[in-house]
From TrEMBL:
Protein encoded by which gene: roo-1
Matches recorded under InterPro entries: Flavodoxin/NO_synth, Flavoprotein-like_sf, Metallo-B-lactamas, ODP_dom, RibonucZ/Hydroxyglut_hydro, Rubredoxin-O_OxRdtase
Name of this protein: Rubredoxin:oxygen/nitric oxide oxidoreductase
Listed PANTHER family: ANAEROBIC NITRIC OXIDE REDUCTASE FLAVORUBREDOXIN
Record organism: Syntrophotalea carbinolica (strain DSM 2380 / NBRC 103641 / GraBd1) (Pelobacter carbinolicus)
Family membership noted in the UniProt record: In the N-terminal section; belongs to the zinc metallo-hydrolase group 3 family.
Amino acid sequence: MIPKKLAEGVYEVGAIDWNVRDFHGYSTDLGSTYNAYLIVDEKIALIDTVKKEFTGQLLEKVSQIVDPAKIDVVISNHTEMDHSGGLPAVMEVIGKDKPIYCSKMGLKNLRRHFPAGLNLQEVADGQELSLGKRTLQFLETRMIHWPDSMFSYLKEEQILFSSDGFGQHYAGPERFDDEVGEAIMWHAKKYFANILWPFAPLIQKLLDKVMGMNLPIKMICPDHGIIWRQDPSKIINAYVEWCKQQPEDSALVIYDTMWHSTEAMAEQIVAGLWEVGVKAQPMHARSVHRSDIITAAFDAKALIVGSPTLNNGIFPTLADVLTYLKGLKPKNKLGAAFGSYGWSGEAPKMVHQMLADMSLEMVEEPLRVEFVPERETLESCRDFGRRVGQAIKKD
C-alpha cells in the first residue's frame, strides 16, 4: 500500500480492512479503514495507530516515508482498539520510551488496555505541542464517542485530525470526499445514526465550542473512511443538522412475520400512510440488517413496529432491533405497535411498552389481529396507518 500525501510533510499511513463485515453489530458492507497520520517536521509525529493485525501495514507505509524508529512522538486521539491495538507493537519498533500524548481519560484508558511501560503524557484541552515549524493543538472532545476522545489540530496546515468524529465505515480505492461524491453522505449518516446518535446533544455542544474558536479548517482527517478535503464544511453542517434530531414527516414500518399475516398488516398500514400523504416504507427485520434499519429510523418521524407473537413474546428479530434502538436513545419520534397472533398475542403490547419506555410518543393503542387478517381487519390496518399519518402531520 502507498501512503497518501495530504500536505507537505503530512501523510495518511493507516490500513484498509476490505473484509470486515460486522463491527460490533454494525454491518460494514464495504469494509472499513483504520486511518493513521504521519507528520514529518523537526519532530516526527504519528497520530493514532491501527487495529492490531494491521500494524505491519502501518509500519510498511511509514517506512516508505521515514524510518519508523525516527518517529519522535505518538498522539493517541482515541483508545478504542481499532486505533490503539497496534500501539504496543509500534512502540517496540520506534522506541518504548517515546512519549504518547493523550487526553486525561486517554491516559487512564490506555493504562487499562496495555501493560505498564508506555510513556503516557496527559495533555490538557487547548494545549499545544511544537513539532518544529508546525504546531499541534489538542481539543478535548469527550464522548465522540468515548470519554477519552480528543481532536488534534495542525495549525499551520489547518488540518483537523478528528478521531472518530466525521468518520464513516467505508473502504474503497477512493480516499477523499471529492473522489466519492454525494454517495459518501449516506455512509456518514449511517455512522452517525449507529454510533454517535446517543451523544448528539454533547456533540452539538462540542461543535459549538470548536466553531466558536473560529479555527480555519482546510481538511478533516477522521479515523475511519474518506478524508474531507474538498468541502469539510459539508460534513460539519450535516452534523449540526443531525444533532438537532429533527426527523422528516415520514414513517418507517419495521416488522417481521411468520406466515405473512403481520406482513399483510404492515402493507396496509403503509398504504394508509401513503393515503394521507406521508412518506412511508416497510422494512422486513429479517431481510434488512439492524444498522440499516437504524439509519432509516433516524430520519423517520414515526416508528411503527409489528411483531407476531412467538412463545408469548416478541419475535427475535424485532427484539434485537428494539434492544439496539433503545441504546441509541431516539428523540422526537412517534410510535405505534401492531402484530398478528394465534393464542395469547402479547407481542404488540410488549412492543408498545418498549417504545414507550424509549420515550416515543405512542399515538395508537397496539393493533392486534388473530391469525389471518380478513378484508375488514385489513381495512382497520389501513385506518391505523391513516391515523398515524395524521398524527405525524399534526406534530
